[in-house]
Amino acid sequence: MEDCIFCKIIRREIPSEFLLETEDLVVFRDINPQAPVHLLIVPKVHIRSINELEENHAPLVGRLFLAAKEMAMREGINTSGYKLQFNVEKGGGQEVFHLHLHLIGGWKKR
Ligand code: 5GP
Ligand code: ZN
Known about the structure:
The chain has helices at 5-10, 58-74, and strands spanning 20-21, 25-29, 37-43, 82-85, 101-105. By secondary structure, the protein is of the alpha+beta class. The protein has one domain (5-105): 2-Layer Sandwich (HIT family, subunit A), CATH 3.30.428. The mean pLDDT is 97. The active site is at residue 100.
């Protein structure tokens, strides 16, 4: 996908620090964090949104969640708690139309 910003990040045409990179996904920090920890877990393959998921994507989707769990541990927010979120299409708040899982947390404990 020529003009997709996340494809450009994955191709390293836009500099971004990968906290994790595997064969099929990357993790980097959100440029406009909504919480102390706000990471994006992004498959390397360009899929527009959850609406475009197909049966053969099931293992990949599983690995997105496992990467989220791994990153929550590494960021030290696994026990305090966090949110995982997919925004789907404009009405669901999606702004970048390349599938990504938000990992959000790190709020102060009360
Ligand atoms: P969406 O609203 O599509 O679910 O989330 C897109 C997210 O990508 C937003 O939270 C936004 O801050 C983030 N974002 C947009 N452009 C960039 C970028 O160039 N680099 C990084 N690291 N994050 C971005
Ligand atoms: Zn893309």
